[in-house]
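User: quick one
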Amino acid sequence: MSIDDFASMNRRRMLRRAGAGFGMVALQHLLLRTGMAGSVRREGGGTPHFAPRAKAIIWLFMNGGQSQVDTWDYKPELQRRDGQALPDFDPKTGFFPGAVGPLMKSPFDWAQHGQSGTWVSSLFPHLSKQVDRMAFIHSLHTESNNHSPALFMMNTGTTRMGHPSVGSWITYGLGSVSDDLPAFIVMSDPKDRGLPKGHASNWTAGFLPGVFQGTWLKPKGEPMENLRRPGGLGDGRQRAQLDLLEHLNRLHMAQSPVEDQLAARIDSFELAYRMQSAAPEAFDLSREPESVRRLYGLDQAHCAPMAAQCLMARRLVERGTRFVQIYSGGMDNQLSWDGHEDIVGNHGGFALETDQPFAALLVDLAQRGLLEDTLVVCGGEFGRLPIAQKSTKPGRDHNPHALTVWMAGGGVRGGTHYGETDEIGYRAMMNKVSIRDFHATLLYALGIDHERLTYRFQGLDQRLTGVESAHPVRELFT
Amino acid sequence: MRFLAGLFRGAQRGEATGGVGSRLARRHRDSFIANARTGETWRLLIGCLLLSCSVWGAVPADHAARMESGLALFRSEIGSVLRDHCLECHGGKRVRGDLDLTTREGLLRGGSSGSVVVPFSASESRLLRLVGHEVEPFMPERRDPLPDAVRQSLARWIEWGAPYDAPLIEGKPPHQDRSVVTPEARQWWAFQPLTRVEPPDAADHPIDAFLRAAGREQGLDLNPPADRSTLLRRATLDLTGLPPRSDTVESFLRPGGADYAAQIDQLLDSPAYGERWARHWLDVARFAESSGFEHDYDRPHAFHYRDFVIRALNQDMPFNQFARWQLAGDEYAPEDVQAMMATGFLGAGVFPTQITANEVERTRYDAMDDMLATVGSAFLGLTVGCARCHDHKFDPIPERDYYRMLSTFTTTVRSLVDLELDPVAAKEQRLAHERQRAVLHQHLVDLETGPLTAKFDQWLAARPELPLNDWTLLEITNAESKAGAAFRRLEDGSYLVSGANGDRDAYVFTARTPLRGITAIKIDALTHPSAPQNGPGRAANGNFALGRIRVTAAPATGGSAVEMRLNQPRATHQQNEGSLSVASSLDDDARSGWAVDSGGIGKDQAAAFAFDQPVDLEGGAEFVVTLEFTVNTGHNLVRPRLSVSTIANPELGLEVVPPGIAALGQRLSRLNSDERRQVFEWWKAREPEWVAANARLIDHEGKRPTGKVPVMVCAEGFPPIVMHSQGPPFLEQTHRLKRGDPNQKLEVAEQGFLQVLSRGEDGERWKWAPPPGSKHSGRRRTLANWLTDVESGAGSLMARVTVNRLWQHHFGRGLVATPNDFGRTGVPPTNPGLLEWLAGELVRQDWRLKPMHRLIMSSAAYRQASGADPKKLAADPDNQLFLRFTPRRLESEALRDSMLAVAGLLDRTMFGPGTLDEASTRRSVYFTVKRSRLMTSMVVFDTPEPLTSQALRPVTTVAPQALWLMNNSQVRAWAEAFAQRLISTSNTADPAVWVRNAYLEALARLPVPAESEAAVAFIKAGYAKPGNVDASVARTIALTDFCQTLFALNEFAYVH
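Assistant: Done. Structure below.
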C-alpha cells in the first residue's frame, strides 16, 4: 500500500487496521499523510507479506543464559577432554577473567529421545518426550558477553538501549486479533525474583509509538492496572457516567466539525468498559479443568509458578494475544540461569521449575489445535562456556559464541537440528545463525519479510534486523 | 599485506605525500588510459593504485601486458561469472557488506570486512578463499562453492590485474569520495546562510502576511478569530500548561475586560511558563535521571539540569547562550552554578552500569555518540549519528566529519561537583546552624551542672552497688576490618564501625587483660543511630549475622596462641533456634550464625560463650577475637564491645563497668574531685536524659551545612562517576573507526565540524584555547562557538530549527513537519519565506524567545478559530497552510496538571528533587524520570521513552487511557476534591450553580442549556439512588461522578 492509498482510505478505518489491539482505537500522527518522519510505513499495512506459518509467538526466555552443553547440545568430545586446558582461550571471553578453569564435561546424564534420536540431558524428563515437536538451532551466536547488552541484542537486535523489541515490531506490523486484550504481554520471573537486567527496556517500543510496548503482568497482586473500578463506584454509576460522557461529547462535537480523533476517543471509553471484564477473564486460571491444571503442574510446588504463567500464555494466545514472552529467572546471578557457581544446582533447580510446564504447554497447545498456529521459542541471551568457572562447586561463565534455541509449533519441522558448534560446544561453526537471522526467522514464521517491516525514524527506514544482512532459517519450517 | 585496504584512502594519501603520487600517476597513466572508459575517476583511481604500489612495490614490470590478457578474460568469462554469482547482492539489487562489484574501483576498495582482491596477487586475494568456502562468510551465500575451473579463471584474472572493460551495470554512477562535500550538496536549503526576507505585505502582521500570501494562491484565507474564551484557554494552556483560573476567565470575558496582549505578557511572566516549555526541551534533550541498562542506577543529582532549563526559560535567556552553556557552561562561566548545571545536557543519556573488558571501548564510543547525536538533533535538526558507520546516506555528512566532531567529547565525562547554589542563603544556613549548636551545647551543660549533678549526689549518697560487675571490659589494642571498615572507640568501651560495609566482613580485635581464671567472653551488639533502623547490624534492615566467632589466647608476656574452644552459647535474643541462633555461630557452617531480627532490631543485644577451660595465664592473657560475618551480604555489627568474666556463671547483661570505675566502687563515698569527675563522666552516660540531649547535639553537629549540594555535570577535569567497569572511564584519543567498530581504528580524529555548515573558515575562528594550567580542553566551547555562529558556522540552521520548535508547540506542527530532521529525509518547510523571516527575527531579537512568543501569539493566524469549510478541507486537508487552528490533545503532563489545578490540589513548589510517587500533587515536570520506572500516568498518554532526542510525541487514542480516567484511584480522588471545592465555594446546594462553576473551572466557558440540563439531571439522579448514606454525602458522590466525567471529556483533553 502506498502513502497515497493511505491518504485516500477512510482514515478511521485505516487507523483501526493499524491497531495494536488492546483497545488501540487510533494512532493519529500529525504526519500520517506526508508519510515522513515518524509515520507508519508498513508495506502490507497490518497484513502479512506472505502466507504465515504462525499467528502468535510464545517466547520462553531462559534469563541469565542457559548452558547449551548441559541441555541440548551433546558433546562427547567434551566428556572425553574433561579436565584438560582449552588452548589459546581468551580469558576475556566470559565475565570473570580470573576464574578460568579447564574444560568441564556436562555433569548430567545424556540419552537419545524420540524418533529423531535427539540427545537431551537428564535435566528435562518431560521435554525430552516432546523432542519430535521441537526444532533446534545449535549455531546461534551473539555480540556481547554481558547480560544487558546481550538481552537487548536478543530482544531488540542491538546491544544498545532503546530500539524496539521483537514483540513491539510484530504488534506494530500485524496488530492484534483481539481488541480486548494486550497484543504483546510480558511475564517476568514467576517466582518474583526480579526483572531481567535492563528491566522494561527488554520489551520497549523504542522509537515506535508507546502503544506497541509490551504489557508487563505483575507476578503478584493485580496483574494489570486500572482494570477495577475505584472503591465506591458501582457498575451502574459508571455506566451512567459513560452515557453522560458520550452525550456531552456529542453535544460539543455538534458545534465543531467532526474530527476523527474525537470520535475515536468516544469509542475508546466503550472499549475500555468491555475490557474490564474481558481481561480478568483471560487471567483467571480457576476456569481451567483440574486435568489441565495437573498437566502443567499447578498442583506441585516446585513448578506451580511457571505452570501458572504457561497456562496463562495459552489462554492469552487462544484469545488473540499476538506475542507472549515469559522469563524464567530474575536479576541476580544465582537467581537466574546464570550459573557461575554450581552448574548442577543452578540448572538443576531451574530445569525442575520449567520442564513440566513447558512440556505441558506444547501438549496442551497441540491438543487444542493451537500449536500449528503458535510458535513456541525457548532460549537465553547467550550460552555458557565449556570450561569450568572455578569455584568450590564449579559453574560456567558467559559464552557469546554459541547458544542453542529450540522452537516448536508454527510450522516448525519437529526433530530438526540446524547448525553445529565445534566439537566441545564452544563456538558456532556450521551454518552459523546470527541474532539478526534469528529475528528474521521469527518474522518469517509470521509471514513478514524482515526487510519490508520498516519505520521511519531519525531519517532512516529502521528495521528490526538493522542494516546488515540477515536471512531467515527457512530450513526449520515445513 | 593489506594492499588495498588503503586504496580507498589513496586520494588522501596522495595529498599527504605531495607530488610523488601525482608524478607516478602521470608517468604511468598513458599506458592504462586506452582501457579506461570512465574518465577522470578512472584515471584518478589508477593514479592512486600506482601510488599505493609505489608504497608496497607489488606492481609487476609486465603489468601492461598482463592487464591486456586480463581484459580479454574479463570479457569472455569473468564478467558473466561476477554478474551471475555476485552482482545481485554486491552492487545490483543491494550492496551487502559495503562491497560493490559493479566497477573495478569498487572491487579494489573492498567491503566492510576489508579487501577482497589484491591485483596481480591471487594468493593474497581473499575473494578466492571466500568463493571456495575456505573462509567465512562463505560465498555465494547459502550456495555451493564456485567450481574449481571458475576459481582458476578468477585467480588468473587477478594475477593479470583484475581489469574491467566497463562497469557491470550501465550508467551506474562511479563511486565518489564522499569525505569531501561537493558544492552541489551544499545547495540544500537548510545549509544556506540566513537571508533577509521581507513580509509580502508590510501593512499586515508579518506572520499573517506570509500565510495569507500562500493561501491566496489557493483562493483561501485565514479563519475568523476564535471566541475570547477559546482564545484565553488556548493561550493559557499553550504558555503554562494549565487552564485559566475561573476568575481570570470571568474578568477576561467581561465587556471591556483585560487586554489580550496584557494577558499574554502576564502568562509569559508566570513561572509556569518555564515549567511548561522546559518539558518540550527535556524531550529533545532525552532527559532522564537514571542510567538505564542493567541496574538503571539513579542519578540523584541530575535534576539540577531540569531546574536550569526551567530557570533559563523563565529568565528569557538568549537561546544562543542556552545552547553554549549546555555544551560548555563550565568553559564559559565556571563560576556560575547555572552554567555548570546546564552541562547536565550532555550527560543525560543512557550509560551501562556493568561493562566487561571487551565492551569498554565500544561503550565509550556509544556514550560520545549519544552526546553528538543529541547535539545534532536538538540544535541542528540533523541526524549526525547516521554517519557513525558510513558517510551519511542522504545528507552531506561524511564519516570523517562525524569523527572529527565526536572528538570534541573525548575527555568529557559525568561528574558530581559540589556547588553553592545560593551563596547568601548558604551563609545564613551556616550561621543558623552555629546558633542552634550553641543552644544545644548550652542545654547539655545546663543539664550536667544542674539536675544531673543533683541526681548524682543523691545516687552517691545512697551508697550504690555498681551494677553487674560480672563482666570486665577487654582493653583493645588493635581493631581491624577485612573489608576496610573504620573503628572508633567510644566512651563506653564499644567500637563504632563506619565506612565500608563489606559484603562478608570480619572484625579482628586484639586485647589484653591482666585477669586470670577467665571463664567466659561476651560480645555486646550495641545499637547506634548511624546504622539502618539504629542497628545493631549494618544491613539495610538493621540486622547482623555472626557466622563464626573465633578466640585465641596467648600469654600476655609472650608465647604461642591457642585457639580456645567455646560452649554454652547464650544471647539476649536470637532470630530463630536454627540457622540464625547463637549456637550456630559456633558451628562450621559459614552460612549460619547469630542474628537478631524478629524482635531484636533497634535494641542492644549481647551473646556470651563460656570457655571449655578457664584461661588462666600467669601475667594475664592476650586474646585475638575474630568475628566473621559470613552469613549474608553486609550483615556486620555497627558497635561491638567485648568483655570477659572470671566467675562461674556470669549473668548475661549489657552493663559493663570499666576497670577504672570498678576500682573506685569500694569507696564511692570518699572520692576526691578528680575521681568524682571520672565517676560522673561514666555515670551520666547511663542517664536517658543526658543520652538524649547529647544525641541531639551530635546529630546536629553531623549535619553542618556546607552550603553546597552535589550537582551532576558533564564536563572535564572533575573525577568521573565510575560504574562497574573493567576499563577506564574514557579513552585518551578518539579515532575514526571503520564501520563504527572500535576494533578497526583508523587515524586519530582531530576536532573539526560539519564541512557543510562551515563557510570559508578553517576553524581558527571558533577555536577557544583554555587558559594555561586549565583542566579544560577547550573543545566543547569551540564546538559551541561554531554552533552559534550565524555568519560562518551553524547558527543559521540553529535559528531555523529553534523557531520551528516554537511554531510547532503553538500550532501543533512545525513549518518543517520534521523538527529533528532538516536534512533530505525531512519534510521541506511549508512556508519557507515565513520560516526564514522568523529565524532572522529570532537573531534580531538577540535570540530571546519571549518576544517570539508575543509575535506569534499576536498574529491573526494564532488567534483564528478551528473548523473549516468543505472547500478549505479539500484544498488543504492537513492544514499545511495554517489557515485554521487544528485542535490537539494535551500532553500527559498538561492533562494531569490541569486536573490537579481544577481540583484545587496543585502544589506549585518549584525546583528540587523529583518524586516517583503518583500521588504527588506537584507539576508533572517534577516527576523523577527513572528509565525503568516511567510514571504510568505519563506513559499512558504518550510521553516518550527518554532514550534519544524526541521532537514529536505520537498521539494515540487507546483504551488504557480511558481505563485510567475511569478507574484510577488518583483520578477519582482529584474528582472528589474538585467536587468538594465546588460545594464549598458556591454557598448553595443548587446543582445548576455547581455545573456552571465546574464548566468555568474546567473548560473556561459557561455550559450551553442542553449541557447544563443533562448534567443537572445526572447529578440529581445520583442523589435519588437508594443507599445508606445521608443526603450531603450522596450529593458529594453524585457531584464527584460528574466531575470525573468532566475530566474525561474530549473538550477537557484538547486545546481548541
